[in-house]
Amino acid sequence: MNMFGARSGLFGSMPPVIKALILTNALIFVTVNWFLGFLTIGGVPVEWYVVQYFGLQPLATAFPNLYVYLWQLITYQFLHGGFWHIFMNMFILWMFGVELEQQWGSKRFLAYYLLCGIGAGIANVLISPLFSQPAPTIGASGAIYGVLLAFALHFPNRLVIVFPLFFPIPARILIFGYIILDLVLGVTGSGGNVARFAHVGGALFGWFLLRYGDRFGILPVAERVLEKVLPRRLFYGPLPPPPRYQVTTSAPPPAETPSWFRVYSPEEKLEEPLEEEQRRQLENEVDRILDKLQREGYQSLTDEEKRILYEASKRL
C-alpha cells in the first residue's frame, strides 16, 4: 500500500524528496554523459566543461576565485562518472533513506542530505591533498554516507544483506565497517580513483548534524532556506506514530544530547491480523485519504487521517 501519492510502481512508493533526488540525478546523468558527451567546443568535450564548472575543484584550483566555486559544493553532488557510480548511489539512497525521510519529514531529510554532501566536499578538498594528487570530485557518495550513518544510529540492529556477502549483518557493523575501510584506504592512498575522504567526511558531518544540528540551529536554518527556494508540495511529514503505542527509537529528541553509541532494541506491539471486511474498509479509507493527499497536499490531512495512514502502513 502506497503512502505517498500514486498507487503503483517503485517510484510511486517513494517519499517525495528521495524520488526527486533519484529523478534529478538520473536526468542530469543522461544529459551530461549521454547527450553532451557527443558534443565538443574547440575540440574539447562539453562534458569536460561541465565537470570544470560544476564538479568540486581542488582548493589550489579554486583559491584565486574561491567565491565563484562555493556553489560547486552543491552541484558536484549531482554529477556522476558512470552508470554503476550513479546506480549504486541511488540504490543505497533508496534502500537506506526511505525510512529516515518517513521519520524526519522531507524538509529535515533534504536539509540533512545536502549538508552532509557539503561537509563531505569540504573534508575532501582539505584532506585529500595530504594523501593523494588533488583532482575534481563528483558524485553523491558523501551525502549518501551521511544517510548511511544516520541509518546505523537509528536502526543499529536492523539486519542488512549486501553483495557479495549473502548473510545478514547488523546495520551498525556493516556501515561503520565501510566508514573505517574508507578511512584506511584514504590514508594509505590505496583507494583508487575514489574520494574516500568525501565518504568519511560525509559520515562525520552527518554525526555532527545529528548531535548538534538543532542545538546550533544549522538544520532549522537549512529547512527555512529550502522552504523559500523549493515548492511546498515537495515536502511532507513526518508520519506520526499511532498515539496508543509507545515507540522506542535510537534517536532521542533534538533538544537532548544523543547517546549515539547505544544499542536499542525497539519493542513493537504485534497487531492481530485483519478480517477480510476490516481490511477492505481500511483500504477504502486509505484510498480516500490518499486522494485527498494528492489533491490538497500533506498539510490538509487531519491528525486522525495521518494516524490512519501510519497504521495502515504497518498492517496492509
Concise overview:
This protein is mainly alpha-helical.
Structure description:
This protein is mainly α. The protein folds into two domains: about 15-235, Rhomboid-like fold (Up-down Bundle), CATH 1.20.1540; about 275-315, no CATH class. It has 13 helices and four strands. It has a two-stranded antiparallel sheet with strand order 1-2. The model is unreliable at about 1-10 and about 240-270 (pLDDT under 50).
How large is the count of helical segments? 13
Radius of gyration: 21 Å
Class computed from helices, strands and strand pairing: mainly alpha
Helix-strand topology string: HEEHHHHHHHEEHHHHH
Order of strands across the main sheet: 1-2
CATH class term of the largest domain: Mainly Alpha
Set out the fold topology.
Elements: H1 16-35, E1 40-41, E2 44-45, H2 46-54, H3 59-62, H4 66-69, H5 72-75, H6 83-104, H7 106-127, H8 141-154, E3 159-162, E4 165-170, H9 171-188, H10 196-212, H11 218-229, H12 276-296, H13 303-315
Antiparallel strand pairs: 1-2, 3-4
Structure keywords:
single chain; 316 residues; mainly alpha; Rhomboid-like fold; two-stranded antiparallel ribbon; 57% helix; globular
